[in-house]
Design goal:
The protein is an alpha/beta fold and about 425 residues long. The protein is built from 14 helices and 15 strands. It has helices spanning about 20-35, 50-55, 70-85, 95-110, 120-130, 145-155, 200-215, 230-240, 255-260, 275-285, 315-325, 325-345, 345-360, 395-410, and strands spanning about 5-10, 10-15, 40, 45, 65, 90, 110-115, 140-145, 165, 185-190, 220-225, 245-250, 265-270, 290, 310. The strands form three sheets. A six-stranded parallel β-sheet has the order 3-1-6-7-8-9, sandwiched between helices. The N and C termini lie far apart (about 60 Å).
Amino acid sequence: MEPRKKIMFLVQDRPNWTGGPIINIRRLLPALKAAGYDVIAPTGYREDAPNARYLEAQGIPCPLFKMPAPTEDYTAWILAQVARHQPDVFIGDTHVAAGYALPWLNAWGIPSVMMVRSLDAYNLEVANAFFGKNLARNASALVCVNARIVEEILKTAPLHPDRIRVIPSGAPTSPYHAAWPNVESFHLVYAGVLMEERKRLLKLWEAYCYALEKMPDLQLTFIGDGPLRPQLEQLVASAGLQKQVSFTGVLLDDAYKQKLSQQQVLLLFSDYEGTPGSVMDAMSCGVVPLCRNMEGIHNLVHHGENGLIFDGSKEDFVIQLKKLREEAFWKQRSAAALRDFADQFSLDTTLARWQRLLEELLAMPLPKSAIKVPTRVSLPPVRYHFANADRRKYPLYALLRGLYILWGLITRGK
């Protein structure tokens, strides 16, 4: 019997993190294990590692590295993990230290994958820094969560499109399905990190209050947690809307899907997304997405078919929401959301795409050499778009990083 192939997938973890990447990892890695791979998930963590404990309980080893730490130390630790476990394929996700480890992995003959999960500057820099013409230093393959990201990457670096794959994060099918409400109330939900930057939840709140003037039966549920929660709770109390607006905190797995299925419409006001997990989860329950027009949403939501897209204004938000208050219209979009999810965005579909890529990489004839971990890791200079994630020991690079961070704060007006 042929031995199981080893897949090493680099993870980062922290308490109360409900962002799309970690939800995807909690789903994908056990699915890969169930498909017959041995999965190892080295985890850099801050304060605590609850998701690593979850993966350990699924039979996935998660050696831990305490963060924050200099990137030189983190990269050296990653290389030590590779030397210890000797994976057949290494997946670095979007992590800078993983990208810096690639030259050694290539020298050792280990195929590698980096990922791009969004169109923000950091993610695009991952593609620019760690995927391209220098095959000796870069990843064997690049995974993007939607086709729009691939288009953007190929505009600036039209290299090796044959080694780029589109693999959405995917979500498991749901046993719970939304239904048209029998009582005089209509349920809206936001699911994700409660933060203003990028997610624009204060805009969501403003639009909800405006919609209440026209449709006073609207209920709103916030699923998740984050730095904006105290302010949102204060706004709810000040408006006297405690009976119509609720906060669940973090919900995961079955409890999350069950709560989602009790809603009718999922709201998303973000500036941009990759392939938003909350939208996929909502569609898996037949909850209709109503999303702001943004980068990353059109791969999932087709306006008027499986959901609606509004122009960002509260006026257009109400126009689109009123359409969904019509029972026949909502039921048609709900059925389409369920169908499109099953066809394109289920975890089974995602797993099949990952398996095809892994088998291609495992069949690659790469020259092998002895695995010898360097006693000292020397890294290239800090890049501007990596500055917040790339701590350095070397004084000149540490100074450069500080200047980049300061410049970023100035240019953002903070």
